[in-house]
Amino acid sequence: MAPAESKLLLTDRAISSSNHVPSNYIRPVGDRPNLLDVESSTSIPLIDLHGLLGPARSDVIKEIGSACRTDGFFMVKNHGIPEEVVREMLRVAREFFHLPEAERLKCYSDDPSRTTRLSTSFNVRTEKVSNWRDFLRLHCYPLEDFIREWPCNPPDFKQVVGEYSKHARALAVRLLEGISESLGLERDHMVKAMGKQAQHMAINYYPPCPQPELTYGLPGHKDPNAITVLLPDSVSGLQVLRSQKWVAVEPVPNALIINMGDQIQASNMDMNSLHQTFVPFCNESNTNKAFLSVFPQVLSNDRYKSVLHRVIVNNKSERISVPTFYCPSPDAVIEPAEALVDDDHPLGYRSFTYGEYYEKISNEKEVMP
Ligand code: OGA
Ligand code: NI
Question: Which residue minimizes the CA distance to atom 9 of ligand 1?
Fold first, then answer.
């Protein structure tokens, strides 16, 4: 646990300092967000999941497939998480970050292996420039293994966040089923491939920033997991890369934002982009082949992508977002599905565990620790 007098978190510093971003948050000139050079005329698709339960299921599945292929990001409405549960989740998140610093610091740790921890920026152990974000990171599945270690303050934190995380898991599973079907696979294929499965949550807190043109809330990154369900508040900030342009994703009331992580990654990339995503495994390989991800059946269909996204901050409002990262369990073995290996598609990748992938990528790249 951190000593209470140290100023490890951004929140209080940001609130107390007025006009300037401290120098360790300032990006080099070529790596700053150009706040004006952003597409706001288009956005990502919005899919109504209501039809998933009835005769229109196959139409919704097609929409999901198409959004995964073309954008890697989409929004969903009628997603099944009650409005009250969502509202409460955001309330308790805000209350947590408004607690006195000494109270919040009880949860502080910069050790990414801790299953419950409050930290700041992105990956404080590897990054050179800090980011304008504090975050609380929680493991959520199986819930009973972790809920005891969650914060006790606000007093209803465990109950409210536990409730939200159960709903978020149910939604992630429904989406993975839809994604499996959209690829012509058995409905439970993806979920089964994730072994015992795991679910992590981040509660991101971006304080107002006096010079948002100099820094990021989160720099461009891809999520290393399988699928992310993001609950945004009403303040904009998320941008996704499409055709080399940053597209602003404006929050839509009652909609959640979904994106594919590295584990649902396309394979029809050239070797360079493949290397960018899977550098650690490529370096290790003596061949010219990268080691790919958990859902090679997806890969072989050459379709779905894990897309670069980032968060910019603003000088007016704090912003809160709550991503749920749904992932394979650390011991899940990642290897091509047998059915996909034939004379035309010979086995090209050694198998590895998700834990191994995650460990390497956290040490070597700017990814969510
Ligand atoms: C993340 C992320 C987006 C947001 O936490 O990985 O991309 O809007 N968050 O906060
Ligand atoms: Ni992300």
Answer: 323
Model pTM?
0.87
CATH of region 10-266+291-367 = 2.60.120.330
Average pLDDT over all residues of the chain = 82
The bound ligand whose nearest atom lies closest to the alpha carbon of 307 is 2
Q: Which of 132, 136, 216, 238 to mutate to test the pocket of ligand 1 (most atoms within 8 A of CB)?
A: 238
For residues 208 and 206, give the distance between their C-alpha atoms in angstroms, rounded to a whole number.
7
What are phi and psi for residue 133, nearest 5 degrees? -155, 140
| Alpha-carbon gap, residue 20 to 130, rounded angstroms | 14
For 281, other C-beta atoms within 10 Å of its C-beta total: 22
Supply the angle between the helices 57-70 and 157-182 in degrees, to the nearest 10. 90
pLDDT in tens, 218-245: 999 888 788 999 999 999 999 999 988 9
Ligand 1 pocket test target in 321, 326, 361 with most atoms within 8 Å of CB: 321
Q: Are strands 198-206 and 256-260 parallel, antiparallel or unpaired?
A: unpaired
Contact, 197 vs 122, CB < 8 A?
A: no
